[in-house]
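User: Hey, my collaborator sent me this sequence without any context and asked if I could get a structure. I don't really work with proteins. Can you help?
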Amino acid sequence: MGEFAQPQTPLLERIGRSTLAVWEQALAMLSFVGESSIALGGWITHPGRVRWRPVLFNLRSAGSNALPIVGLLSFLLGIVVAYQGADQLRQYGANIYVTDLVGLSMLREFAPLMTAIIIAGRSGSAYAAQIGTMAVTQEIDAMRTLGIPPLEMLVLPKLIALVIAMPLLTVFADVMGIAGGMLMAQAQLGVSYGEFLDRFPHAVSVTSYLVGIGKAPVFAVVIALVGCFQGFLTRGGPESVGQQTTRAVVQAIFLVIVADALFSIAFSVLDL
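Assistant: No problem. I've predicted the 3D structure and written it out in structure-token form, which is a compact way to encode the shape of the chain:
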């Protein structure tokens, strides 16, 4: 049996092939971003070509339909942040500073990041599955044959809708997270709602609020482009749709966290 066994691929060769595959996909992604930017430029210069119906449909599916899950998780996260800090603040008699803890952590980091992760799992996967199914059934090839640009029909409406929806969802997540923290501050630290709200403008500056909101459109662009890109890469049958959908979610969440880390470094350098 030994003489018929297949020889194993050397480790260095496997690493090289994996690196080459990652590099090729990165170049393909860069090309896709460029093509999408050109298509978006065409919409900007010729507003009559904008397809508002798909934009509004995607705005409803990615925005208003996501409010319940975003609000619930943000509310619970606010409760968790306040609860974890309650014991430490109580030891030093600094109960009122729970406002600073909840406000800064939710508005600057947790609300935009958690919203992006939820949307990546919810909408990013849907984008990849929808476009992937159309690729498998050759609907995208049919669109090209009829002279309908797939990017303008499938990508740009999703991109624009998500760029509009993400900041609004982040604001909603801010409100729900603060509400959860305020509830826990009342229950665990005896900080009344009035005291919490009085302290809030002094604890959280407008700059901190805008920093969190400013991340949302960037996260939206990452999620939409990665989801659509993975959908266009779908080949073969239904199994490929599942694989590309999984890759879309994983890559979108990874890139969102990387972008958030880069934001943190940049804001630290700029002293924001």
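In plain terms: The radius of gyration is 23 Å. You can pass these tokens on to your collaborator as they are.
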